[in-house]
Specification:
four-stranded antiparallel β-sheet; Immunoglobulin-like
């Protein structure tokens, strides 16, 4: 016969296990509250205070976003029964830890004009003609090249570092995006030299092609591109989805 003491111990173990399953750590990814810094982590059970009219967006260890609109004081709650996403959480926390701002991840993206013109996730997956750098793409057939729209008319010449493919993109003042030239194939881990009229130095973009996984959430996608070294894109994407979070 099972003793009452054993049944009591079993009930306690089940209760503690349930509490552990609900435990969640959060990191601040966007904040308009002056006393809540982007990159701050809150452990399980920690209270957050958000002033009236301020807004704080968190990512939890479940990999889900939580938005707090002031006035708010209490413990943030993520979705129940969510599967822990420790790798995703670690990637997001590492990304925003280097932003050092209170006004949101969008201001951490460099250069500043990209944060101003990027409105949708598709805008994030454009190759920067000014800065180059590591660039992640899911579908190279839809690739775009982007530049500061405040620049005047001019040409951008793109040359593949492997092979002899080259093409020119003609810009009209005010335009921020143009299709990637079809005559220059985009391949994984390949680099491209980008020269713009009026700039003394060329940019070099290195492409990382990623597999499309329709089951991935937007937060998981941020973590994926951050892990591939496309940090500027990861911050831009995080800014867009954080702004849209409710």
């Amino acid at each position: 016969m099972i003793s009452k003491a054993w049944l009591g111990a079993l009930a306690l173990i089940i209760c503690l296990a349930a509490m552990a399953a609900d435990a969640e750590t959060f990191v601040v990814v966007e904040s308009s509250a002056s006393d809540v810094k982007v990159g701050t982590e809150f452990g399980d059970g920690a209270e957050i205070t958000v002033a009236d009219q301020a807004r704080v967006v968190l990512v939890g260890s479940s990999g889900q976003m939580v938005t707090l609109t002031g006035p708010f004081q209490g413990v943030p709650k993520g979705p129940s029964s969510a599967t822990p996403q420790n790798r995703v959480y670690t990637a997001i926390a590492s990304l925003v830890a280097r932003s050092g701002t209170t006004v949101g991840v969008s201001r951490a993206a460099a250069p500043r004009w990209r944060a101003d013109v990027a409105r949708t996730p598709d805008d994030v997956f454009a190759i920067d003609a000014s800065e180059g750098g590591d660039t992640c793409l899911y579908d190279p057939s839809k690739a775009q090249v982007t530049r500061d729209p405040s620049a005047g008319s001019g040409d951008t010449t793109i040359t593949a570092m492997e092979g002899s493919a080259t093409a020119t993109v003609a810009w009209t003042a005010g335009f921020a995006y143009a299709p990637w030239p079809q005559g220059i194939p985009l391949t994984d881990e390949a680099s491209y030299v980008i020269e713009q009229t009026g700039q003394s130095a060329a940019a070099i973009a290195t492409i990382h092609l990623l597999k499309v996984d329709p089951t991935m959430t937007s937060v998981q996608r941020v973590a994926q591109i951050a892990e591939r070294g496309c940090e500027a894109q990861a911050r831009l994407l995080l800014a867009i989805i954080a702004k849209a979070s409710k």
